[in-house]
User: Fold Ig-like domain-containing protein from Cherax quadricarinatus.
Amino acid sequence: GPVFVAHTEVGGRAQMPCDVLTADANDRVVLVLWYKDGVGAPIYSYDSRKHSLTNARNWADEKTLAGRGHFDLQSSPASLILDNVRATDEGLYRCRVDFKKSPTRNARTNLTVIIPPHVPTILAEHGGPQVWTVVGPYNEGDSMSLICEVRGGKPPPHVTWWMNGQMIDDSSDSPRPETVTNTLTLERLTRGHLHAVLGCRASNSNHTAPLHTSITIEMNFQPLSVKILASREAISAGKEYELVCQSVGARPPASITWWLDGAHLTNATISTASNGNVTLSKLHLVPSDTDRGKFLKCLAESPVINHQPLHDHW
Assistant:
């Protein structure tokens, strides 16, 4: 007879079909026996030899089925239903059907039990510590390497990396038994990687949703520009002026300092725009007549990245 194929996940429900229909209206099923893996003794029997179909005797082997199996004659085709499937249920099932008149019929079902893998773990490169929610901060231009590790699963899972919902790496390997890894390397991080969501997915069955773990990339940027926002017209000695210096593009906010011919001016307040991208510093300046021809300079630098400071001068 035919060999059916059934896939089910651990804890799921398996259905092994067994055709019991006959063309002859006067014929009927008298005995159905189920066997597993060619073992001589049946694991389930449905017996209507001495009874009507509705009062047929059902018997199940406690050791194999443990109260989880029943034969459903009403389904089409009739099937042995197995609930709360275990890994040990995998194997070849055979049903043998005896009729009152028709010849005996056999049907086989090869049951594969899928064991889902564990949830992916994301590790810093070279087997470093586990990354939980955020990775970084990285500087612009840095390279980044992360390892996604997935344990368990039958069949072994396929492990993929995704960024903002797009697959970016599907090359996984198995460095040791029961473990599949995928190492992701991004050679040059750009400003576009800020707060990108990186996800690792593990899948070993079309029948179930992939398991996934995601993290966010945190980044530091040096300032892109600095500018003293002033008209550069002549100013008068003894009067108070409020000058503004604006720096754009730093993360965390730029550190802004004011200098007058190399002397650090401390009479300034700093504020950061709500999106964090723009930093403003206001300087209260009361020039004296000896300040004519001096250079007023505004300097912007990242508090966390070593770089050549940006400056604007008047």
